[in-house]
Amino acid sequence: xxxxxxxxxxxxxxxxxxxxxxxxxxxxxxxxxxxxxxxxxxxxxxxxxxxxxxxxxxxxxxxxxxxxxxxxxxxxxxxxxxxxxxxxxxxxxxxxxxxxxxxxxxxxxxxxxxxxxxxxxxxxxxxxxxxxxxxxxxxxxxxxxxxxxxxxxxxxxxxxxxxxxxxxxxxxxxxxxxxxxxxxxxxxxxxxxxxxxxxxxxxxxxxxxxxxxxxxxxxxxxxxxxxxxxxxxxxxxxxxxxxxxxxxxxxxxxxxxxxxxxxxxxxxxxxxxxxxxxxxxxxxxxxxxxxxxxxxxxxxxxxxxxxxxxxxxxxxxxxxxxxxxxxxxxxxxxxxxxxxxxxxxxxxxxxxxxxxxxxxxxxxxxxxxxxxxxxxxxxxxxxxxxxxxxxxxxxxxxxxxxx
Length: 403
Ligand SMILES: C[S@@+](CC[C@H](N)C(=O)[O-])C[C@H]1O[C@@H](n2cnc3c(N)ncnc32)[C@H](O)[C@@H]1O
Description:
Elements: E1 2-6, E2 9-13, H1 29-38, H2 54-58, E3 67-71, H3 77-85, E4 90-95, H4 98-111, E5 118-121, E6 130-136, H5 141-151, E7 155-166, H6 172-181, E8 185-187, E9 194-199, E10 214-217, E11 229-232, H7 244-251, E12 261-265, H8 271-279, E13 284-289, H9 292-305, E14 311-316, E15 328-333, H10 344-358, E16 359-370, H11 375-383, E17 387-391, E18 395-401
Helix pairs in contact: 1-3, 3-4, 5-6, 8-9, 10-11
The structure holds S-adenosylmethionine.
């Protein structure tokens, strides 16, 4: 449990899933900076290169009844601080991450049990109006672009728009998006390696069209998905091209037949699970990912390509936590290798242990990954065996059988 001092008081915050041994905090300096700004803290003195206009600090946007939208709160720290500290706000959280949504839910329950916050996802209809928009800058510029497109119509000339990120997350391209899709934009000085982006909503007429979702055709020579079209909503892994690891698995997809349950674990745009459905039309595929954008992409990719009558389910969740033990025949997995939500190893380990529990005896887990990540050792420890099914100089395709 982490103690967080917000401008309005102390909060006890946790990540989701809560793993106390990991010692990763459920808030950071960007969350704290955004909250101090919204509470009216003037922040550091402006300098020539980073002017902060007087009206930015003089404005007190958090009045009772104000419609406040928080986009991309990592663990719910911003939403929870506002819900617990400022009575009467009309608060909406918008997140793409199942893990972030669950963390926010738990933190709100613990710190602001009386509050009524609308917990929504990037796939839901955006709120009709926003007097205050707080954007926790996501790692994915594409997701920011798509979400600013979706939320900009909710803003009005008097809306306060505050973006917050660590300095490593705020780039010229980030500021350009705020400028293009919201209006005139400035940044503040960095405080504890965090920076704020302050935008004033401008006229809608100048906004370009939203380019998301993207559709692209896969190359030939990759098995059943050859030449087929993939749909990617903003923020999904490898949204505009085929990942080389994914390609290796497509080229060496296990040959199977007859009714069985296949899981595309961490499905992204669903290319692996859709290939499995094409290779064995009798199987049922469960597409699952912690990103709402990913699961929506997988559903579009499957519907556009799957054979008539093919069966599939689509769920947003954490690894395989909600799948009954011993119910799965085959798991296909290209695990995450970087994530703002958790350390790399942690996400992959959760997927492997989840897969082991979900597989029936004799069921198989196929993992494609960068060779240097050492998943081979991890899988051998967990499953007792692990063989290399295919390899390139950079990637390995691993097969582990549940005993
Ligand atoms: C390397 S991408 C692979 C995507 C897709 N299977 C492909 O090969 O193109 C890893 C995926 O795992 C998802 N992911 C990360 N952490 C997760 C978790 N705890 N539970 C479920 N999915 C997760 C990410 O959102 C991402 O879509």
